[in-house]
Amino acid sequence: MRVKEGSKIRNLLRFAAARMQGQGQEGSGGGALRQVVFTGSGRALTKTITCVEILKRQVGGLHQVSKLSNRTVSEAWESLQEGVPGVTVCRTVPAITILLSKDPLDPQEPGYQPPQRLTSLPEEEEVGEERRDQARWEDLHASCAQHTACGAKRVRLEDRNTDLPSTSGGLT
Q: pTM here?
């Protein structure tokens, strides 16, 4: 997939994800693609990396090999005035080529990255923290209930910070 400065990320991802998941291949006679290569240069370099990172999260289990290089781009301008020669400029621009594969790749290859572990979403982490806090409270409450001299006051964990003294110096 050649990523250009004007390419829309959603279009690139929709196409690549459909191919990697085996959708949208009428008449091709095959299933899902096992590999996809993204290339981009110059101002499209960051967009290329963004596409790859998003696709890795969408598809999952993809091995990656990244290669950086330079490309020489020759630009020619013709003069609008007669008798004035045109100008040709050669520029060197950075380029990146990233191979994503469902099949294992050589881990000794420079630029290799193994598949990412699936991480939980932030909402799931918050729910998990609330459950841990609730479990800690229940453990503390159970241990205090065993001792009659504990004298612990039950406070909801969410309300704990509201009991802090004001730092405004008494001004409200």
A: 0.62
